[in-house]
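So, is this right?
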Amino acid sequence: MNDLERLLSDLKKIDPKVRKQATQALWVRWYQECGEAAERKLYEGIRFMDANDLKRAGNVFLNLTDEYPEFTEAHNKLATVLYLDGHYEEAIGECMIVLEKAPHHFGAWNGMGMCLFHLRRLNEAIFSFEKALEIQPYAQDNRHYIGLCRGKLN
């Protein structure tokens, strides 16, 4: 079993400490996948996002995706900014780029589910949240949104 497989397996363990460590290790792996310079730029965009400066954050992430098109986390953060700015269709497109390269990216599955939920594409949202749950079965947010979607469908 390689390191990625072990981390993904640990997400399914009963022990919450093991799950938390695996989750954190996966985020670190995603942040660092294109080297230190790319990671520094990613954090710059995150600081703008945390300051609610979505325009500047979006520009940083867009530049990162241009400079490092294989940087899945740059696409994921761009999707987050697009989601926060209400551009759900574009955010879904970025999530799909992430998932093509990293089908185990539970954050992208969840993010796509959130976009689909806001677009009232509820069956597709349920599918996305269920895919996130397959990877991270103890993530209660996904269960919550599946319930909300099903409630709106009934």
